[in-house]
Amino acid sequence: MTTHTEVPPQRRGPSDDPDSTPVVSVRGLWKVFGPKADRVPHSEELRGLTRRELMDRTGCTAAVRDVHFDVAPGEVFVVMGLSGSGKSTLVRCLTRLIEPTAGEVVFEGEDISGADAARLRELRRRKFSMVFQHFGLLPHRRVVDNVAFGLEIRGMSRGDRLRRAQEVVELVGLAGYENAYPDQLSGGMQQRVGLARALAGDPDVLFFDEPFSALDPLIRRDMQSEVVRLHREVGKTMVFITHDLSEALKLGDRILIMRDGRTVQCGTGDALVGAPADDYVREFVKDVPRGDVLTLRWIMRPPQDGDALDGPELGPDVVVREATRAVLAADRPVKVVQDGELLGIVGDEEILAVVAGRDGDIR
Ligand SMILES: Nc1ncnc2c1ncn2[C@@H]1O[C@H](COP(=O)(O)OP(=O)(O)OP(=O)(O)O)[C@@H](O)[C@H]1O
After folding, report:
1. CATH no. for residue 80?
2. Which residue minimizes the CA distance to atom 11 of ligand 1?
3. What residues are in contact with ligand 1 under a 6 Å CB criterion?
4. Residue 359: what pLDDT?
């Protein structure tokens, strides 16, 4: 008899359609600050220097070095790195708030590297939204007018923009505060206004640059949950910058780890934890509770002769912590099944190895 164990609800993930056009596509992106910055990306010799060597030789800092990635529609893509690794510069290059030194940024199929000022203004008004650490609210305007501000700039009528602002104020949990002024709100609530303002114009992609860094830890956790909830509800594509690994793991469908301007690894949270690309990433993820992040996909094994194959079924994306009870309670191995196909099995051994921290790098 096959027992179906209920699979916990999954986050709304990126589009599964491999043919869908990425919302943002970055190719060979460089940003070099300093004299004659242009020559750095085009010189084999200079490209290979360390940050220190480059500074000594040329007086330049390469903040972003040859970065490539695609962000799929509906994906939450996190860029993570320590201070100075180049995250802010990278995200500012995506909207050309900072001019890249070399490489391509393609937005919904359009290479925006060559977009003129009018086109950029249009994109920033209608397609992109940014949420920064400093909320940048207008102190003499009420919450609802702050939220409606971008719509006003677009020329939307007063009635329409207040209606839309009211909708998003409610969406971010600020109903009742429409008429408050920013200084009457806590930091967390002000950041909710920032979120509402970013969502009001129904952008195609939201860019977050360390939006919660200045908030107290508890409020910060609340706001992270809020982003997860909003993403579930509105399914927007998001690019999120953070230096906090737990925030990255909580929010990101995929995470790009930066160090000294370069990509060290780009993958799902469970891939970073299960198969760190190098010692740097390994060190980063070593304190992550593995059972909270690793999925059954990472710990399953192929069935062998003699394994009973009539145990309960779970999906490959269920995290170990959520599967533990079902696996330990079953008297047969749990089958990891996707679309009717048996991918592998998981028994007490595999679960206990993770719980006891004996699993090491998995691949
Ligand atoms: N305008 C600038 N001129 C010269 N160097 C710069 C400039 N902006 C950034 N840098 C340098 O580029 C590197 C990357 O900076 P960036 O602010 O992008 O890093 P970050 O990862 O966002 O760090 P933080 O979290 O501290 O903001 C740093 O070495 C920084 O000193």
Report:
1. 3.40.50.300
2. 63
3. 33, 61, 63, 81, 83-89, 243
4. 67
> For 171-194, what is each residue's pLDDT tens digit?
989 999 999 999 999 988 998 999
Top mutation candidate among 87, 92, 132, 258 for ligand 1, by most atoms within 8 Å of CB: 87
* pLDDT for 9 beyond 50: no
Round the average pLDDT of the chain to a whole number and report it. 90
Tell me, in angstroms, the distance from the centre of ligand 1 to residue 188's CA.
26
Q: Are residues 314 and 272 in the same domain?
A: no
Q: Interface pTM (ipTM) of the complex?
A: 0.97
Give the residue among 168, 178, 250 at the shortest CA–CA distance from 212. Answer: 250
Residue 107 lies in a domain: no
281 within domain boundaries: yes
pLDDT tens-digit readout, 28-87: 999 999 999 999 999 999 999 999 999 999 999 999 999 999 999 999 999 999 999 999
**Is 209 inside a domain boundary?**
yes
- The residue whose CA is least distant from atom 6 of ligand 1 is 33
What is the residue range of 318's domain? 291-355
Q: What is the domain-level CATH number for residue 306?
A: 3.90.1280
Q: Which atom of ligand 1 is nearest to the CA of 210?
A: 25
Single residue among 285, 318, 337 that ends a domain in this structure: 285
Ligand 1 mutation pick, 89, 99, 258, max ligand atoms within 8 A of CB:
89
At residue 134, the pLDDT reads 81
If one residue of 30, 60, 85 were mutated to test the ligand 1 pocket, choosing by the most ligand atoms within 8 A of its CB, it would be 85
Q: How far is the CA of 341 from the centre of ligand 1 (A)?
A: 47
d(CA 61, CA 137): 32
Which pLDDT score is estimated for 10? 44
Confidence of residue 139 (pLDDT cuts 50, 70, 90): very high
pLDDT score at 5: 39
